[in-house]
């Protein structure tokens, strides 16, 4: 694991965007993995600023709230359409677990099958939740998990309900790529910005913490963590 200390979230977002662009351009036909959340908004803005042009035909999302229509203002399908697909003019296929053909367990299996047959991803973007979740793999998730339905942790509901109107309308369940699914990408770029993530980051990088979600990727050969937190 390589840990890159950045001066600010803005500087970090720029570096992550540049690295993402370099990797995906080096393997232009390989699909990529996209993440969502507040941190990623800046990263996608930087991709636009550096005039990044997608060459890949397939992009895979990490997760989605269960039961939200793709056009719902809080769905991750819509988020990725607004922050990635439209600003970058991506004309390929966006695969979102839990949406379209990827609904119900047979759909989650199909999502895994699609990823396995078109993959591996050249690069997967990742954030880290303040409680240590990776995608919606909450603490306690199996390190060998695959795409499935998951229950959001109370801390995740508390952190993300601000985006919902009213806040109580946040779905309690989601569909998430599993930790073993995520670990298959060739390169993992993890962006962790803000003091509120200090404890989660400390646990993530600590070899002693064998059960946190991050333990599933800690020994990945091409893992870079970008953070503004001085450990
Ligand atoms: P954030 O979410 O970028 O909104 O902090 C990260 C995450 O929960 O994985």
Q: What is the element layout, followed by pairings?
A:
Blueprint (H helix, E strand, L loop, with lengths): L1 E4 L3 H18 L5 E3 L3 H12 L8 E4 L1 E3 L10 H13 L4 E3 L8 H15 L4 E5 L20 E4 L2 H7 L12 E4 L2 H4 L5 E5 L5 H8 L17 E5 L4
Parallel strand pairs: 1-10, 2-3, 2-6, 3-5, 6-9, 9-10
Antiparallel strand pairs: 4-8, 7-8
Helix pairs in contact: 1-2, 2-3
The protein binds 2-phosphoglycolic acid.
The site of 2-phosphoglycolic acid has 7 residues, from helix 2.
What does this structure look like?
With 231 residues, the protein is of the alpha/beta class. It is 33% helix and 17% strand. It has seven helices and ten strands. A seven-stranded parallel sheet has the order 1-10-9-6-2-3-5, sandwiched between helices. It has a three-stranded antiparallel sheet with strand order 4-8-7. α1 crosses α2 and α2 packs parallel to α3. It is globular. The relative contact order is 0.19. The mean pLDDT is 98. The structure holds 2-phosphoglycolic acid. The site of 2-phosphoglycolic acid has 7 residues, from α2.
Gross morphology is globular
Ions, cofactors and other bound molecules: 2-phosphoglycolic acid
Number of helices: 7
Widest β-sheet, arrangement of strands: 1-10-9-6-2-3-5
Based on helices, strands and strand pairing, what is the structural class? alpha/beta
Got a strand count? 10
Measured on Cα atoms, how large is the radius of gyration?
A: 16 Å
Poorly predicted tracts of residues: none
Binned, the helix content reads 25-40%
The profile of the biggest β sheet is: 7 strands, parallel
Strand content: 15-25%
Mean pLDDT: 98
User: What gap, in angstroms, lies between the N and C termini?
Assistant: 15 Å
In N-to-C order, the SSE pattern is: EHEHEEHEHEEHEHEHE
């Amino acid at each position: 694991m390589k840990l890159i200390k950045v001066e600010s979230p803005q500087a970090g977002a720029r570096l992550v965007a540049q690295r993402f662009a370099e990797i995906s351009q080096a393997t232009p036909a390989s699909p990529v993995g996209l993440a969502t959340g507040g941190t990623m908004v800046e990263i996608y803005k930087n991709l636009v600023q550096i005039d990044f042009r997608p060459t890949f035909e397939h992009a895979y999302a990490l997760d989605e709230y269960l039961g939200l229509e793709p056009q719902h203002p809080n769905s991750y399908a819509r988020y990725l359409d607004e922050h990635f697909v439209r600003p970058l003019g991506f004309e390929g296929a966006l695969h979102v677990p839990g949406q379209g053909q990827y609904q119900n367990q047979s759909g989650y299996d199909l999502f895994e099958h699609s990823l396995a047959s078109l993959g591996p991803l050249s690069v997967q973007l990742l954030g880290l939740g303040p409680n240590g979740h990776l995608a919606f793999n909450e603490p306690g998730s199996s390190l060998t998990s695959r795409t499935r339905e998951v229950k959001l942790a109370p801390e995740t509901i508390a952190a993300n309900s601000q985006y919902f109107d009213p806040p109580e309308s946040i779905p309690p369940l989601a569909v998430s790529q599993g930790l073993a699914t995520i670990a298959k990408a060739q390169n993992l770029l993890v962006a962790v910005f803000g003091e509120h993530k200090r404890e989660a980051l400390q646990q993530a990088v600590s070899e002693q913490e064998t059960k946190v979600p991050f333990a599933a990727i800690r020994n990945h050969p091409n893992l870079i963590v970008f953070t503004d937190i001085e450990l």
